[in-house]
Amino acid sequence: MPAIEAIGLERTFDGxxxxxxxxxxxxxxxxxxxxxxxxxxxxxTMVRMLTTLLxxxxxxxxxxxYDVVADAAGVRRAIGVALQxxxxxxxxxxxxxxxxxxxxxxxNRQAGREKADALLERVDLxxxxxxxxxxxxxxxxxxxxxxxxxxxxxxxxxxxxxxTGLDPVSRRTxxxxxxxxxxxxxxxxxxxxxxxxxxQLANRVGIIDYGRIxxxxxxxxxxxxVGHPRLEIRLLDDGAERAQGIVAQFGKPLPRxxxxxxxxxxxxxxxxxxxxxxxxxxxLKVESLDLVEPTLDDVFLEKTGHHxxxxxxxxxxxx
Length: 319
Fold this sequence. Notes:
Blueprint: E1 4-13, E2 17-27, E3 32-36, H1 43-50, E4 58-63, E5 66-67, H2 72-78, E6 79-82, H3 94-104, H4 109-122, H5 138-149, E7 156-160, H6 168-183, E8 187-192, H7 195-201, E9 204-209, E10 212-217, H8 219-224, E11 230-235, H9 240-247, E12 252-257, E13 260-264, H10 272-281, E14 286-292, H11 296-304
Parallel strand pairs: 3-8, 3-9, 6-7, 7-8
Antiparallel strand pairs: 1-2, 1-4, 4-5, 9-10, 11-13, 11-14, 12-13
Helix pairs in contact: 3-4
């Protein structure tokens, strides 16, 4: 049984605005699945439906074997959720907040204390545990929200843009925790607008645009599907026309870019040396070479017709 399954899932607002337009989805038990797309693509709406916070207007979905409409209570018992905007009381301390979550999930006082201590250590907030949450940085609040979502040891964890607005160090810390949770058996469904995040974390990626999945596969296969690595060659003299004819012997020539000669190489790095030798033998001097692997942005561009441009993260965050 899949950890998450959706069939023709839809959500319409104001009568005719389809935020999610008939999504079919299957996430295997123990998988990290990333929903990649820009703001407004339908990512958060999808998460809200799968976590029973928003009722679908069409189709069906189940999480951990429970129908999101018919057995919403069963879904809630099985999942952990960390939304993009964490609803954390700024006047409570981190320790108080985790203990409160433990009480809400039915743990007795002693068990709640032990769980809070363990989770605060896990997300590296022991030193800040007795400070008010209002004094926490953005990265610390995200880690605390993640800890709160883990109190009842959920089978499936939903993370809605868990690192948006965080600096690179905080983002990396969240990634490491997500990977560790997955190694321990937790299925993770995350939404993101960061290409690197999807590439780094996900077993499979679904690219969503205007409420529809336009591509879905492993990151590696998605990238391979849009082409092979390309070699960008800059010459010391004006020989671009001749160079294009020479590189065509080794792969598919591509349109020149900012004066550089481009060729797609099926075997990637293994073909670079022969290309350089052929250019040298023709009397063409190479100034620089750059072997560029296909990226998820290339996939996104091919499938949607536009680049994915995430919001810029905040800088100068102090933890």
